[in-house]
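Hi support team,

I submitted a single chain yesterday and got back a structure, but I'm not sure I'm reading the token output correctly. Could someone confirm the output below corresponds to the sequence I sent? I've pasted both exactly as they appear in my results page.

Thanks,
R.
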Amino acid sequence: MDGVVRFLRMLFRRDDRGQKRKRDPSPCEEDPQKRRRHDPAQQQEEMAAFFRVLEDGHHWRFLACDSCMMISDKYLLAMVIIYFRRAGLRTEEYRNNFFPALFLANQMEEEFCFRWEIFPWALGHTWMENKQELFKQRNQLLLRMGFRTWVDRTTCDLVMAEAPYHWAWTRQRQSHHSWAPHIFRRVTGGFTISGPQFSRPTCSL
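Hi R., thanks for writing in. Yes, this is the structure output for that exact sequence:
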């Protein structure tokens, strides 16, 4: 299934400026008419459930630790609720699928492996022995979504516009962090996974 994710990424490569390459519309993209037909009351219920997941103590701490928003900026979080909707998840399924969906969003959008930090938060202190469980959960989500992983910026903006003043949509990654992975790897030669048991190093940028 990781090969499938790599293939999906290849379909939507970025150019040298970090922008998505122009291409013909894909069946994976959201249909605007389908968006308009979506029940507003259902949208509100889904969004409220999503926000409750973010404000849950464990997820709240996770987001707080990602203070540079390298793996959970507003666009990656918007992709999570979009994935939930594409998979047709019930709102009571949101909590258990948050980390698998966020991991998948990072796989699709991010070039570097900061997403590994998700493992201990999703799986606990035995994550090294059980990390295949997160892949299994991600794969189940992929199947329920029909492999529709591509999300354009307009779709993210429309989702955020449903509740434009929520704090989740203030998680804007700073522009200087666009080059942070290159600097980080050159200076440290690696990436340390901290998880909920340890404090993250202070950002040096």
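A quick pointer for reading it: The chain has one domain: 39-188. Let us know if anything else looks off.

Best,
Support desk
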